[in-house]
Design a protein that fits this description.
41% of the residues lie in helices and 17% in strands. With 285 residues, the protein is an alpha/beta fold. Strand 3, helix 4 and strand 4 form a beta-alpha-beta unit. This is Dienelactone hydrolase domain-containing protein.
């Protein structure tokens, strides 16, 4: 399954992201050194508000990081290909603090490993058991429901965005999905078979062909039309891939990658739409 996703994530930047066509050739050694410094330091700094729990599924156990109010509606937050780094923790904390409050959970899909440079991240993603990741997500949803969250949504970014949409198809316990710039390959999940309401966000300038560019967004919209579930697909002008990574360190990383400058208005609008969608499906009786 890893090879299927890697075929979706293709671009000319093998030096940057370790795949053939993932992003333009914009990363070099300096960027990778930045990642190693920033991700190691900031991931540790962002750990304090989280409580680590262990979740059992099948014959394996994995760590997960929980924040927010007990008994609040739950949201599983899925990582980019780097692992459980500072940015996914920033997103989870932001969501937990939204009004009226959510309980967020980040499952460690990489089992404690973190990509400190692009080659490492590519290796980790290539080695991911994608069907196993879906099982982790389902176990995370059920853990939240069994410990006080009456309804649970799933959200994710890039790789996690693709897994979020797949969860809307393959995790029947998920009550809502919001995905950011990522579409699963058809071999993993067919969005036309979605069971949960899905909202998806893409950047107009995203050039990851077939995964998160405009063509992928429009193809997803057509699939969701035939699914029968409520859906929304948004494309943000002047925004590129990973445009939600707007923390100070996330902005540094994006600049090191040579990516499109962040658009604060797009980030604010996307969060507003996220809040409205999750509130509609997780807060109602």
């Amino acid at each position: 399954m890893a090879s299927l996703v890697l075929r979706s994530l293709t671009s000319s930047c093998s030096a940057a992201f370790g795949t053939r066509r993932l992003l333009p050739p914009l990363l070099g050694a300096a960027a990778c050194r930045f990642f190693a410094r920033s991700m190691a330091a900031d991931s540790a700094a962002a750990s304090a508000p989280f409580r680590k729990v262990q979740i059992q599924r099948d014959d394996t156990t994995f760590d997960a990081y929980v924040a927010g109010k007990d008994n609040a509606p739950g949201i599983v937050v899925l990582q980019e290909w780097w692992g459980v780094d500072f940015e996914v923790k920033n997103h989870a904390l932001h969501i937990a603090q939204m009004n009226p409050g959510y309980r967020t959970l980040i499952p460690d899909l990489y089992r404690g490993k973190l990509g400190l440079d692009a080659a490492e991240a590519q290796h980790l993603m290539a080695g991911l058991d994608w069907q196993g990741a879906i099982k982790d997500i389902r176990a995370s949803v059920n853990w939240l429901k069994s410990t006080g969250s009456s309804k649970v949504g799933v959200t994710g970014y890039c790789m996690g965005g693709a897994l979020s949409i797949a969860s809307g198809v393959l995790v029947p316990e998920a009550d809502a999905v919001v995905a950011f710039y990522g579409v699963p390959p058809p071999e993993l999940a067919d969005p036309s078979l979605a069971k949960a309401p899905i909202q998806a966000h893409f950047g107009e300038l995203d050039n990851i062909v077939g995964f998160s560019d405009i063509s992928a967004a429009k193809a997803l919209e057509e699939k969701l039309k035939s699914s029968g579930v409520p859906y929304e697909v948004y494309i943000y002008p002047r925004s590129g891939h990973a445009f939600m990574n707007a923390s100070p360190d996330g902005i540094k990383r994006r600049k090191e990658m040579g990516m499109t400058d962040e658009d604060p208005a797009a980030v604010e609008l996307a969060w507003s739409r996220f809040s409205s969608w999750m509130g509609r499906y997780l807060l109602s009786p």
